């Protein structure tokens, strides 16, 4: 029989975590411009790609004035500033590829970047929260939230494939919104023993995960594997676990010792972390340590949501205790859909990393570094790793297999 939630068990809500009912973890209506004082940043950030191709980005950044960050007031201003400074930083470090990296980020970029990062609780490197969650606008403000109507605020080398990669990832985040909204229903339903509410919420949850997989399939339509592997990946790479920058990067004027940060990774999305905590997925030590570290690359309120979900009574234990056919079936369907999503992600990674990596190795072994073969220009340091620094295929397969373990 269902019970009510007592005062000591306040209903679980998404309100304290800066999660939008409409957009989930996506930043609603990101700003496209900063106050005029910061125009020197935007003038460079909006032309990073051209400046990289002309080998002029580093010289432009070195001439940039050192700006005071105190005039950035709202959260949206800080997020756009972080995005702009992040894109400039990735371009500055990787302008000449993996063979001519820099040891130091100049103070006129490093100091404001670290100040903005500290205020947001984000690291001073391009993250999923920047490149995907806060890097979009609608071409027609009244139009649909779809591929035809979405545009990037700032971009990196890779042309249409860069837009495709970030926008498809954004649509995966959007498809997850019904699942995010169902989390409080599940938690509160478990708290008061409401089998019917939990069952219905889990049905919504599994449908949303199917929607995420369907959105992810657009990657094959909008992103060319050879462009992702040969051109884009290096600009998403960090200076931790990367042999091109084994000592990390000195942020001049911030601290004398080099700092190490991982590059952008799907593991920096809060979605699957929340889903794992809700369903009770436990990862093995190495994978779990990497995933936990990736939480430091999320907005602090989103990281806190993941942690707070983990503190709730066990959903899986509740399902087993109730021994109700409909509830068990709904829970099992969620596990099945999460498994399918992770299996499809492995398929995507194989097509966009493993296959091009093999082609790049073949070309290098033949001594054929051809301008026609985009993959031949790919960085060798990242051949079998993700941009976040993980050994990607073994990591993804281990994570998938641990998901299977929560089946009832």
Q: How does this structure look, described?
A:
The chain has about 400 residues and is mainly alpha-helical. It has one domain (about 35-405): Methane Monooxygenase Hydroxylase, Chain G, domain 1 (Up-down Bundle). Helices cover about 55% and strands about 0% of the residues. Strands 1-4 form a two-stranded parallel ribbon. A two-stranded antiparallel sheet has the order 2-3. α7 runs antiparallel to α9 (about 195-215), α8 runs antiparallel to α9 (about 195-215) and α12 (about 270-280) runs parallel beside α14 (about 300-310).
Which ranges are low-confidence, i.e. pLDDT below 50, for 5 or more consecutive residues? none
Total helical elements: 17
Average pLDDT value? Answer: 93
CATH class: Mainly Alpha
| Tally of distinct domains | 1
Radius of gyration, taken over Cα atoms and rounded to an integer in Å = 22 Å
Helix-strand makeup class: mainly alpha
Shape: globular
The fold-level CATH name is Methane Monooxygenase Hydroxylase, Chain G, domain 1
Strand order of the largest sheet: 1-4
Distance between the termini: 23 Å
Largest β-sheet summary: 2 strands, parallel
- The helix-strand sequence is HHHHEHHEEHHHHHEHHHHHH
Binned, the helix content reads 40-55%
CATH architecture level-2 label: Up-down Bundle
Number of strands: 4
């Amino acid at each position: 029989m269902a019970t009510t939630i007592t005062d000591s068990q306040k209903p679980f809500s998404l309100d304290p975590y800066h999660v939008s009912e409409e957009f989930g973890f996506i930043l609603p209506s990101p700003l496209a411009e900063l106050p005029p004082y910061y125009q020197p940043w935007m003038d460079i950030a909006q032309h990073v790609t051209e400046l990289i191709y002309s080998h002029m980005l580093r010289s432009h950044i070195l001439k940039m004035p050192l700006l005071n960050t105190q005039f950035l007031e709202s959260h949206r201003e800080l997020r756009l500033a972080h995005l702009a400074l992040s894109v400039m930083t990735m371009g500055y470090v990787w302008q000449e590829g993996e063979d001519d990296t820099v040891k130091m980020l100049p103070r006129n970029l490093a100091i404001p970047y670290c100040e903005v990062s500290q205020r947001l609780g984000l690291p001073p490197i391009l993250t999923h929260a920047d490149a995907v969650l806060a890097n979009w606008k609608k071409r027609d403000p009244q139009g649909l939230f779809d591929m035809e109507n979405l545009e990037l605020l700032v971009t990196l080398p890779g042309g249409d494939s860069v837009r495709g990669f970030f926008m498809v990832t954004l649509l995966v985040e959007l498809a997850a919104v019904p699942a995010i909204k169902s989390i409080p229903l599940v938690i509160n339903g478990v708290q008061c023993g409401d089998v019917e509410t939990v069952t219905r919420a889990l049905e919504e949850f599994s449908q949303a995960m199917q929607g995420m997989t369907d959105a992810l399939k657009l990657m094959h339509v909008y992103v060319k594997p050879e462009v992702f592997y040969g051109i884009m990946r290096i600009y998403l790479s960090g200076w931790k676990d990367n042999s091109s920058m084994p000592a990390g990067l000195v942020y001049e004027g911030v601290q004398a010792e080099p700092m190490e940060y991982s590059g952008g990774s799907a593991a920096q999305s809060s979605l699957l972390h929340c889903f794992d905590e809700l369903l009770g997925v436990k990862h093995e030590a190495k994978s779990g340590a990497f995933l936990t570290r990736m939480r430091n690359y999320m907005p602090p309120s989103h990281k806190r949501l993941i942690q707070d979900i983990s503190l709730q009574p066990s959903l899986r234990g509740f399902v087993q205790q109730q021994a109700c056919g409909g509830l068990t079936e709904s829970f099992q369907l969620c596990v099945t859909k999460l498994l399918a999503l992770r299996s499809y992600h492995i398929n995507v990674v194989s097509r966009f990393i493993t296959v091009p990596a093999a082609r790049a190795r073949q070309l290098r072994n033949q001594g054929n570094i051809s301008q026609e073969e985009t993959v031949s220009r790919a960085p060798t340091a990242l051949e079998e790793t993700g941009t976040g620094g993980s050994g990607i295929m073994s990591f993804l397969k281990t994570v998938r297999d641990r998901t299977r373990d929560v089946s009832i």
